[in-house]
Design goal:
single chain; alpha/beta; 7-stranded mixed β-sheet; globular; binds ligand PLZ
């Protein structure tokens, strides 16, 4: 089967078999006997092409993509600019290892991130491969700079699957169960969860700060790290004023304030970074996912004095800042800017919000509609209560998948359906996808 990917793919939902189709099922059987069981899949269709707002599987089904490979393909899948940049780069050279013999692409990405990330202070950037690796390095740098060891993380947080970042992640199943022991000196404190705690941002921050002071005190604390909107934890956006209050406390106490913008970054929320909404300026920021149109790249960007604290040779990695990923990142970032995709994210957010606000009037199982831009979620609850409706949530995602719409779930209680469409999706396709989710809700 020859299918050309990218935005030239027909932008339609088209099912020619049941999902998963026979060829996907064959692939799943091969997967089960070749790939470790721990590597699960949300929807067992085998993809052969993707672009715009669709994923095409090996059986010829065209599915609506409301997940972007977990907030990665903001510029779309197989974006022409990314394909061209990567193609040109692989023809020049594929690898040298930047810390052996450097190249311009890495430096250009660092310059761009220094310019785009919140704050106009002098900055430095170091590049890595994955979000977890960026978080690990942000902690490493903060400890080196402060000569302190403690790290504060939050309820409902997600930071990755390596040993340190597993320990920093809140939820046990599936991320941590049986995989310990975890790295020491990680302390968990309450976050702001307006739907469930009903607190103002400053009030929630006062409770959090009290916990930090009681549990370890500023003298032992190297860094506080938080996602500006918690992703895997349920798209929890803290109440206004929470982030600025935590940041102010960190700054007053010589604690490095780190924002994990791995999921929220790069136009996804309707701003270049989610921190921009409240004018929060982190000391360090971690980025990945949407940075390079699907190629593996991540970064730590922050205050020059902190970033430059680590000695030469203290940071790096064989593939960190691969020339191919850097070429993709430069093309990706240019595409966000040229196509004004942050504005598009805001429009997408409005379509999703309006759609479910309407539905909520007649279905009180839609407990909360929240998020920003093209990072929106619905928290489902049992009718007449705020009890998490995890089984309903799973059933909705499953039915939507069977109907050709890829949606992801999340949340500490497993009761959140999240929407992370590519910013290149059409309104028509988006609405069709939402209607399939609404139909699945009505049927369950
Ligand atoms: N920080 C805020 O959202 C990755 C997890 C997918 P990596 N989230 C998706 C899964 O089930 O493995 C994430 C994140 C935030 C860090 C990470 C980690 O990024 O690129 O997956 O390592």
């Amino acid at each position: 089967m020859s299918v050309i990917g990218g935005p030239s793919l027909p932008q339609e939902r088209k099912l020619v078999t049941s999902i998963p189709g026979p060829k996907s099922q064959e692939m799943l059987a091969r997967k089960n006997s070749a790939v470790a069981a721990g590597v699960g899949v949300a929807l067992p269709v085998s993809i052969v092409a993707a672009g715009g707002g669709v994923l095409v599987d090996v059986d010829g089904n065209s599915l609506i993509d409301l997940g972007s490979g977990i907030a990665v393909t903001g510029v779309g899948n197989a974006s022409p600019a990314v394909v061209a940049a990567v193609t040109e780069q692989v023809q020049q050279f594929t690898h040298t290892c930047f810390t052996v013999t450097p190249y311009e692409g890495y430096i250009a990405v660092a310059e761009k991130l220094n310019e785009l990330t919140p704050g106009d202070h002098e900055k430095r950037t170091a590049l890595f491969n994955s979000g977890a690796e960026a978080v690990e390095n942000a902690v490493k740098i903060a400890r080196h700079y402060t000569k302190k060891t403690g790290v504060v993380v939050f309820d409902h947080s997600y930071h990755g699957r390596t040993n340190l970042t597993m320990g920093m992640t809140a939820k046990n199943m599936p991320y941590k169960d049986g995989f310990g022991p975890f790295a020491p000196e990680v302390y968990r404190v309450p976050t702001s969860y307006p739907y469930r705690d009903g607190l103002s941002g400053p009030d929630a921050a006062a409770i959090t700060i009290d916990q930090i002071e009681k549990q370890l005190g500023a003298t032992n604390l190297a860094a506080i790290i938080i996602e500006p909107i918690q992703g895997e934890g349920g798209f929890i956006a803290p109440a206004e004023g929470f982030l600025p209050a935590i940041q102010a406390w960190a700054t007053a106490n010589d604690v490095v304030f780190i924002l994990d913008e791995v999921q929220t970054g790069f136009a996804r929320t309707g701003n270049t970074f989610a921190a921009d909404f409240e004018g929060v300026v982190p000391d360090l920021v971690t980025t990945a996912k949407g940075i390079a149109g699907g190629l593996p790249l991540s970064a730590v960007t922050g205050r020059a004095a902190i970033m430059d604290s680590a000695h030469s040779g203290g940071l790096g990695g064989t593939y960190a800042g691969s020339p191919i990923a850097c070429a993709a990142a430069l093309a990706t970032i240019e595409t966000y800017e040229k196509e004004n995709l942050a504005e598009r994210a805001t429009e997408i957010g409005k379509v999703i919000t309006d759609f479910f606000t309407d539905l909520q009037k007649t279905d009180d199982r839609i407990g909360d509609i929240r998020g920003r831009g093209a990072m929106m979620a619905i928290e489902f609850v049992e009718s007449g209560s705020k009890d998490p409706a995890a089984a309903l949530t799973g059933a909705i995602a499953k039915q939507a998948g069977a109907e050709g719409v890829v949606v992801l779930t999340c949340g500490t209680y497993g009761n959140v359906v999240r929407f992370l469409p590519p910013l290149t999706i059409s309104d028509e396709l988006l609405r069709e996808g939402l209607q399939v989710v609404a139909d699945a809700l009505a049927a369950n």
